[in-house]
Amino acid sequence: MGVIYDQVNLFKKKYPTTITWWRLKKHAKVIESHLNPGEFVQYAFPGQKNSTFSDVFSTCIVAITNKRLLIGQKRVLFGYLLTSITPDLFNDMQVYQGLIWGKVTIDTVKEVVEITNLAKKSLPEIETNITEFMMEEKKKYAQSIQE
After folding, report:
1. Quick one: three-class SS letters along 5-54?
2. I want to staple 107 with a disulfide (CB 3.0 to 4.6 A). Which of 9, 66, 91, 102 is the partner?
3. Count of CB atoms within 10 A of residue 56's CB?
4. Which residues in 66-110 belong to E strands, given as ranges?
5. Which tens digit of pLDDT belongs to each residue from 125-142?
6. 131 phi and psi, to 5 degrees?
7. Among candidates 138, 131, 91, which has minimal Cα distance to 110?
8. Is pLDDT of 123 > 90?
9. Closest CA to 115 of 54, 67, 60, 64
10. Cα–Cα dist 62/79, whole Å
């Protein structure tokens, strides 16, 4: 298995109430095929890439690499979707905790990405990993502009 799939399995074991039950290996392969030379995955988790909690067929994997945030989703019949969010395009993030599941909304310059049906207990860990990565990279980006 790949590193991404192993990290997703660890997340699923730690937070079993997250709803993602199919095609995780295929989603992980989409992300692995788009990693650039020198890029590695620091953290990965599964979720549903949609805006409603009732749609459970939009499973995806979100991976934080050392350079960007990738969201990979293998289509059922053919093709795939890949969303790449670089730190310079990241605006804001919102975390919502509902009665059963939670949702993370990532606001970028171009779009808003929503990852739903996440275990409530996983929300602080996900928020911390995304925020820490983006803040560190934005600092580096700001320093490179000033120079």
Report:
1. HHHHHHHHHHCCCCCCCCCHHHHHHHHHHCCCCCCCEEEEEEEEECCCCC
2. 91
3. 15
4. 69-74, 80-85, 90-97, 101-108
5. 999 999 999 999 888 776
6. -65, -45
7. 91
8. yes
9. 60
10. 18
